[in-house]
Amino acid sequence: MNRIKLLQLIALMLLFITACKKKDIAPVFTRGKVSVKINGELKSFTLANSYDFDSGLISFGNNAKEEIVGFSLTGIKEGVYDMSHQEVVFAIYSKNEVSYGATNGVLGIGKKGSFKLHITKATNNKISGTFEMTVLPNSGTGDGIIITEGVFENIPQI
């Protein structure tokens, strides 16, 4: 009888051990990819890329507190958005919580900096396109930031 109980105990322990060793697979979130030159330095963003159709926000970055590039539009659809666009557009760059911006002046606050955003594809809740901008410090003092050769692919809607 002791031998049967010992075998049952061993079987039960093996069951718990193998159940605990089961490897959980974390879900993979695809955030698209972005490559861009910021003041001539090539950067790649893959972690915090998204857009919100309702609010018109598009953002690219790896960590919002470290470095982020973004746009605020009145609607997100395929097309070109630049300084001559008839609707409100803001371009945003922030690094280490110091912010820079550009706007087409439609709100009456005057034109500032320059930008061009081209959304080439907006399907299946993802957008792709190109961008460039020259943004000026929001503080009003300091040098501007030149952002060129921006390419974004398959940025998901949040």
Describe it for me?
- It is a single chain.
- The protein has one domain.
- The chain is built from 1 helix and 11 strands.
- It has one helix at residues 2-20; strands at residues 33-38, 41-45, 50-52, 57-63, 67-72, 79-82, 90-95, 98-103, 114-123, 126-137, 145-156.
- Strands 1, 2, 3, 4, 5, 6, 7, 8, 9, 10 and 11 form an 11-stranded antiparallel beta sheet that branches.
- A hairpin with a 2-residue loop joins strand 9 and strand 10.
- The protein is globular, with a radius of gyration of 24 Å.
Q: How many discrete structural domains?
A: 1
Oligomer state equals: single chain
Topology pattern, helix = H, strand = E: HEEEEEEEEEEE
Helix content: 10-25%
- Number-wise, the strands total 11
Q: Treating each run of at least 4 consecutive H or I residues as one helix, how many helices? A: 1
Structural class category:
mainly beta
Alpha carbon gap, first and last residue = 61 Å
Radius of gyration: 24 Å
Strand proportion: over 45%
Structural shape:
globular
Largest sheet: 11 strands, antiparallel
Mean pLDDT: 80
Note poorly predicted spans: 1-29
Keywords summarizing the entry:
158 residues; mainly beta; eleven-stranded antiparallel β-sheet; 1 helix; 12% helix; disordered N terminus
Quick summary:
It contains one helix and eleven strands, in the order αβββββββββββ. The chain has one helix at 2-20, and strands at 33-38, 41-45, 50-52, 57-63, 67-72, 79-82, 90-95, 98-103, 114-123, 126-137, 145-156. The N and C termini lie far apart (61 Å).
